[in-house]
Structure formats: structure tokens, C-alpha cells
Amino acid sequence: MTESAIDLRDLSTSAFKEFVDSFDTLLCDLDLTVWHRVRRPPDLLIPGVLEVLRKLRQMGKKVIFVTNSSHATREQYLKDLAEAELAEVSSHVVFPVAAVGQYLHRTGFKGRVHVVGDDVHREELRSWGLQVDDEIEYPRARYSYYNIKSHLKSDPEIKAVVVEFDPNLNYLKLMQAVVLLQNPECLFFSTATEKVLPPILNLRLIAIGYFADMIQEASGSSPIETGKPHPFMGELLVKSESLDIARTIMVGDSLDQDIGLGIALGMRTWHVPGEHKQPPHPTNKPTYFSPTIGHILPKLL
Ligand SMILES: [Mg+2]
Question: For the chain, does the N or the C end have fewer beta carbons within 10 angstroms?
Fold first, then answer.
């Protein structure tokens, strides 16, 4: 169990009621907290989670899903939530590239957006009314400064570069981002700091953290980090949903990302590690603990 956290299963009936009465909103991670990402229904959901979230919803709690995974658009996420019967709990999901879209939309951003990422990211950003450039199809380049430069262009109308997961990444894409970021007015967003993703299907995927680091070092421009545990998504939610920090709890399986985000926002946190084995975190101490969200179901009945 998590060191020093209050085990929700051990609370007396009155103390558990106090816990439930103490919050209005649950910011809830998805992967390995609510569902196993690569499984399909009926094995998709972690046992008991749907029942607990339904109960909390019936009690009037608001649930907002906050995930670092930008593999889908909001539209696709809503379909996934509906398929998992979670739509009745909440159809509000926030993930880094959607948060960038919402932020640029809210701040009246003028200019075009350049994405190092997948089509799904361009589609999501366009759904926020942003002008997003199509992916550039580069020819093969040669190891020559002249040749590489001939493929790249500055563009003062591009005012934001967004770095996401790009399964078709190549050298010229990285360098095009570097060239665009020479414009001091161009914003730079990186949606995750992870350099390698956790193993799924026996694959550890090289990830956005490396891409963003390369662009950052070569351009000299530091990105606005939008993924958990950086507070970007949470701060946006606090503003757009008028959340009361003192009455909001962040729940998730990752000490680093989920508990880290809650702490960064000054919220109470609830750690549900499930099968996600993690060493104790040097600084991120959660307020509450249960092995999974489903483990508090007997207390709610
Ligand atoms: Mg997770």
C-alpha cells in the first residue's frame, strides 16, 4: 500500500461518509485506472469502477476524465466511453492535444498551427476552430546542409508548433519544427514528457519526450508542457469548470503523473495503483489509497 495515505477501505462508516461528502468533483485518469487500454469490452473496464462511478454520479458528483493519451479525438473518446457504458458517468474527457486546442480557442489565438504528430491530432485541433496545416510529405533528404535547408521553410503565419506522438516521424519534420520555432512569436507545446511508453504487446515505444527534447535543444525554445503532471490541463479545467480546488480530488494509478498533477494543483489525491507496480515516489504522497476505485464499492452500498 501507499506509504502514509489513508486507506479508504479502513475508514469507519461515518469517516467514509465524511470523505464522500468532502468533494464535488473527481478528476479521474483513464488508462489503468478506469480501463485497460488495449482490451475490448467486456474485459475493458477494471472491475467495480463503473459501479463506483455510477454511484458517485447518482450522489451528484461530477466526474471529469483526464488522460495523457491523445491517441483519439474527443469525438472518438465519446464513442469509446459510450461503448464502455461510461457515458452516463461523464462525457467530459480532457487530454493534452484537446487542452491545447481549448487553450488556443479560449485565448483567441490568431495564426496557423503546425503539428508534429498524427492526423488524429490535426483533426482534434481543427475541431476547436483552429487553422491547422496538413502534414508535409517530404522527399528523401541527403546528408548535406544545402540539401536539408532546401526542404525547410520559415513561415511567420505559423504561430504555434504542437509536438505529439508521430509514428511517421522523420528528420525533416523535426528540423521543420526547429526552423518554425526560430520565430520568437511562435508558441511551442509539448504534450507529454515520457520518453518511452510502458510496455504493451511487448513493445516499449519511443515517445514524445525524446522528440520534444530534440526540437527544444536545436531551437533553443522551451515547450509549454501540457501532459500530466504539468498543471496545464488541470489549470484549464479549474478555470473553465470553475472548480473548487478544496472540493476536488484527483484519482489515478500513476504516482508520477496523476498524484503529481493533483499535488501541483493543490488538490487532495487518491492513488489506485491496481497492478501498476511502482516504487514509492520521493515527493508525491497521495492523500488516499485503495488498490482500485472498485475496492470502495462495498463502502458505498
Ligand atoms: Mg493511468
Answer: C
Q: Is the pTM of this model over 0.70?
A: yes
3-state class (DSSP) for residue 206 = strand
Q: How far does the centroid of ligand 1 lie from the alpha carbon of residue 93, in Å?
A: 14
Domains in the chain (CATH in brackets) are 6-68+228-300 (3.40.50.1000), 97-225 (3.40.50.1000)
Nearest to 77 by CA among 86, 230, 252, 190: 86
3 CA → ligand 1 middle, Å: 19
Mention every residue, 6+ apart, whose C-beta is less than 8 A from residue 147: 141
What is the amino acid identity at position 143?
Answer: Y
Q: How close is the Cα of 41 to the center of ligand 1, in Å?
A: 18
Give tens-digit pLDDT for 116-145.
999 999 999 999 999 999 999 999 999 999
Distance 36 CA to ligand 1 centre (A): 9
C-alpha cell at 18: 465524511
